[in-house]
Amino acid sequence: MIYLLVSFALLILSYFFLKKTKTNLVVFWVFVFLYFIISTTYLISNYFTWNWVDESVIYHLIYWLGWAWFGADINLIIFWIFAVFLWLAVPIWLYFYWRTKRPKTNITFRILSSVFFILAFTFHPILKNFYDLWYLNFSWETLAKGISYKIPEVKDNDSKKKNIIYIYLESFENLYLNNDIFPSLTPNLNKLKEKSIYFSDLHQAYGTSWTIAWMVWSQCWIPLINSWWWGNSMHGINEFLPGAFCMWDFLNQAGYELSYIWWARLEFAWKWNFYKTHWFKNISWKNQLEGKLKDKDYQNDWWLYDDSTFDFAFEEYEKLSKSWKNFWLFMLTLDTHGEHWVISDSCKDDIYNKENPDSVLNSYHCTDALLWKFIEKLKNHKNFKDTVIVLSSDHYAMTNNNSSDILRQHQDDRRKLFMIIDWENFEKVSKTWTTLDIWPTVLDKLWFDVDGIWFWVNLFKDLKSVPNDTLKLFRSTFESFWKYPSIKNGVRFDLNDKRFFVWDESISYPALLYLNDQKEVEKILWKDTDNSTKLEDMLEPNSIFVDFCEDKKWFCLIFSWESGEKISETIYSDSAISYDEIIEKIK
Length: 587
What we know:
alpha+beta, eight-stranded mixed sheet, five-stranded antiparallel sheet, globular
């Protein structure tokens, strides 16, 4: 924050020494407008991340805002409107105030104005954030060479396999279990901690600070990044990380039935594509479950309450437990999410802080009670034998809940919550480790023989976890797991359905396909309806732009040669362009 204040002070100094001609004032106004935009983005980002602009911000700018309920963050909307007013009003006021003043002509003043102006943007802390994000693209790539990703071979140890119930607890970091900091907040989780294998030193790895990223990282052993920013480019391909061998792929091969209880809209953060790609056959989401609610009004605008989610999860457990197959039931809570957390009705008589009903800690206390009730119901079920329960936070608590000040006071002690309850072994594991070591460790408790997967390790073995900084060296390898469709079979166009295909993959349009030196698809950029980016202006050598023409009858294409020259073509009928024709057009 200190750098932002210094940057702003330099901007003011620059204005003070500026020669205030009409042209200079207009140019300065434009840059001040830009300055306010990036500063507001920087401040709002920290509202969510506590880490200013990180990879989660880029992801949610592209995906999350299209699906989330804006009313949940009305304070941000008010702040944004106020900021827009400042963007416009302050520079305009400065312009009219100074235009009648006699401009300074001293050459020293002009130099000082230029220097302070450049330093104002140079010192802006958002530049360091962007540098940290893009740094992963360009540094240390040679160090990562020679370590290739291999589909893991996990051996069966011939013991009876166990079922697993995996529960992600929204924003439920380990610090909330500390009775010295939050007295009696989570009595049930603390009891479970004593009856479990409890991992006390799990740090939040880079690329895992939002829910879908944590799921991808903890279950596929890779961060959620690709060649287009830091999101998952589901506009353009129908599969989510098809090149990654995730835990679900392994369990499917081992004969497990995979189920997921999902509290929100199906499209939120593209999770549906993630699970569909990796063998989830039973997916229950809000749109489907809300019809089963006894009280149809008992829901939020975009999620179900936790007591409803736990009830539906128990119904799914009963169904799965009657099958002869082993199963993996996965669920996620949400009542403790963000600033506008909620309390399920079943907790109304057990408020943690009756003097402060607006405290988010009431929601954490409620989820703790609901979790205990759910686990007790499971334990008493006749088919519960040989079932392992895994409890995990999805990420650290969000910055905009009202316990944030307490968490900041203990910043160095913050850890992710993780425990395995197998009803046989109780121990505390104090190893320092990362999210990537979760699944080799969980596989051990499912009675599979595994030391590690790729270079992630089983924490029950005498192996050292890979340091978090080392993970950042493998960006190019992580990007390769997206496996964009091959263009070797050419491009096919369907005018009736307004679709085009690359190797039978339906591609959203407008789209920009970049080809690498081997003339294969390297990445796909797209344009959403709410995105004003002109993709045709981003054509590079060896790329193809595809869109429906203005008359909405034909496809219009632009091919960019290796030399940078561009040629256009219109597709007037259902047809295809062969690979050889494509190569000829961009040679």
